[in-house]
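A common beginner's mistake is to predict each chain separately and then try to dock the pieces by hand. The better habit, illustrated here, is to supply every component at once so that their relative placement is modeled jointly.
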Amino acid sequence: MDLHHAGVFVGLAAGLLAGLAFIMSLFKKKVLDMHFDERQERARGKAFQYGFFTLLIAAYAYGISDVLLGRWCDVLTGVTLCIALALCVFAVTCILKDAYLSLREKPRTVMTFFALLSAVNLGLGVMYHISPGLTENGVLTFRAVNPIIGAAVLVILIVYIVNYLLRPRDEEAE
Amino acid sequence: MKNLRMKAARAALDLSQQQLADAVGVSRQTINAIEKGDYNPTIKLCAAICRALGKTLDELFWEE
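With all components supplied together, the output reads:
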């Protein structure tokens, strides 16, 4: 492992640890919560199933694309793309079945957090695009992970907001 | 099939879906889904709803 790769590894590990610590602090402050009722658990189980099969299909499609088209992105970027796709399917299914947020989570707080997360990651993507680094010799580098995550979170955010706006205001009218 | 008996029992106590949901520890959408017949609750949740509404299981959930 040369110095460049060691730097990349340390950077990724540090970012992952910082992200985990941040998410754990959100759970501790009750911004994020995992208490769902039985209908939500069931709906999330179904959504997880859809997400899982999406991941299988996406991973296989990525493998085939690599064989047919040659290397078009880093393996880390490709894996992230597959995971982001599966997460989007899971989240959108949960949102459509009113099972995305738990009983104790505040929608406004969680969606504000998602908006910030998306903005930061997309902002990093734009930064990498301006100061070349997003692609090298036409191949998407690992730096594309940030805009992929940003786009996935943005999709979830948009679906949540649209679903919220289209839902009848009167509870009895649902 | 819609559960109109549960809806009537809730209305008789002047409870909103949200208030009943809070009383039994589920989301409002879950109460709505049960009343609309979109979701079959477990016996545990049925019992909790019966306790909250002061009814028996037969009165709210038994279908002839």
